[in-house]
Amino acid sequence: MAKQRQGTLELKFIFLLLAIIFVIFLLFPMLMIAIQSLSSGQEMTTNFYGEIFAKPGFGKALTNSIVVSSLSGVLTTILAFILAYAVNYTNIHKRIKKSIAALAVLPMFLPTITYGFAIIYSFGKQGLITMLLGKQPFEIYGYSGLLIGYVIYTLPISFMLINNTMGYIDKKFMIVSRAMGDNRFRSFMTTVITPLLGTFAASFIQSFFLSFTDYGIPTSVGGNMDLIANMLYNEMLGSLPNFHTGSAVAVMMLLPSIISILLLTFLERYNIRYSKISTIEIPKNRARDSVFTGLSLLILVTVLLILAVIFIVPFAKSWPYALTPTLDHIKVALGDESLIGVYQNSLLAAILTAALGTLVVYGATLISARSRFSHSLGKILDSVALVTNTIPGMVLGVAFLLAFKGTQIQNTFFIIIICNIVHFFSSPYLMMKNSLEKIECLLGKYGQAHGRQLV
User: Fold this and answer.
1) Distance between CA atoms of residues 345 and 206, nearest Å
2) Which of 213, 210, 115, 216 is nearest to 160 (CA)?
């Protein structure tokens, strides 16, 4: 009892620290954004929202963003499921499975604006794939280019979420289902799809909001298409910035998070938790293995082919007119001291963000997934994760600007790191929570391997 009480006190202390972090660096900045959208400096007003609704392109921009982001979310989740199923439910060679898992997350190491340029250099009129085909396969500016860019951008996160959950599904229920007379389709829906419903929702929501709030891809391949992210940028950081109307746009972009929270809360009932995972041999099925190998290779080769041009163009003398190999561009980049300084600063910020962010996420998941002293505290952290997922990075940055202007942390590494931790909190939190909730499965597997029962 004494140890249990001590553990509870430690978790409450961790929650207190997390509460302080998110109140100061999430709630307070977003309140500043909300106040900015309602205050004219002298009185409270809703006129700025009226100005946004009165803009002729606002409704179209909102509709376009919702439609293309929804399509991206659905398509990304389907493709990620195919890749994850190939890794977890087939008898494909282990080396191929490892390659699929590694290549599926590769695009996440590139900034989003890179995807747009990769699409231009691949499918543009002078693009690599266009030259190989002899003609431009489709118009890259607008829906087509945006959808391709968003799918490449969100596929790694979606794959990690689904693959992580699939790894903790007890596959013995497939055998039980078939033994009870279920046909293949019913068995598939019951033992594979149903346990993944909550993860599918999380994947769709992650993909939707990453696409909905991204500015890099629309900048390069959006063309003349009106999008809410472009409107936000123009209001906040355009040639004539207006923080009041920009804040109003930001607040409206946050409203879909309410629907997200309700949806995930509803689908939480479908999350199945196993006390242990049985080690079984996947039934042999050459047709299944061949189909999923082919589909996985098609998905990954397509993505890699689009991104490959990014690693070719820097070594061409003048793309696409002079393709002579050269290292001149690399030498110029390495000889630019200011660029090297920027790279070092970015690397330092990334390392510190990863290290400190992991500690924050681990503390949060200990409370939400492993503690039993307060179910409501875990729900609070779940809501925080959903909210941080829906806040555009540009909005969060401007919110920090409004909240911490004139303070000692302004223009410091600390404010960049804490902003990154808050902004990227959602995905690692959801994956780590999913793993910790099923830690008994790992103990069960260990006990089976060593011939004893672990408690």
Assistant:
1) 28
2) 210
Beta bridge partners of 39: 44
Contact 399, 33 (CB under 8 A): yes
Please report, for residues 35, 50, 59, 66, the alpha-carbon distance to residue 54 in angstroms, rounded to integers and kept in the order given.
Answer: 21, 6, 9, 19
Structure tokens at 172: 């013995």
Q: Is the pTM of this model over 0.70?
A: yes
DSSP of 390-452, one letter per residue?
HS-HHHHHHHHHHHHTTSTTTTSHHHHHHHHHHHT-HHHHHHHHHHHHTHHHHHHHHHHHHTS
- Look up tokens 């006390």; give the residue: 275
What Å distances lie between residue 50 and 224, 239, 245, 437, 447, CA to CA? Answer: 24, 22, 9, 45, 63
Question: Residue-wise over 85-99: b if at least 16 C-beta within 10 A, else e?
Answer: bbbbbbebeeebbeb
pLDDT tens track, the chain, 455 positions:
555 555 577 888 888 999 999 999 999 998 988 888 887 767 787 788 888 788 777 888 888 988 999 999 999 999 999 999 999 989 998 899 999 999 999 888 887 778 888 898 888 888 888 888 888 888 888 888 999 999 999 999 899 889 988 877 777 777 777 677 777 778 888 878 888 888 888 889 888 888 887 888 888 888 888 888 777 777 766 656 677 777 787 777 777 766 776 776 676 665 655 555 556 677 788 898 999 999 999 999 999 888 888 888 888 887 777 778 888 888 887 787 788 888 889 899 999 999 999 999 999 988 887 666 566 777 788 878 877 876 777 778 878 888 898 899 888 989 999 999 998 898 788 778 877 766 655 555 545 444 444 43
Tokens of 138: 């489709």
Q: Which of 250, 238, 243 has its CA nearest to residue 212? A: 250
Tokens of 345: 């600063």
Cα 124 to Cα 223: distance, rounded to the nearest angstrom: 13
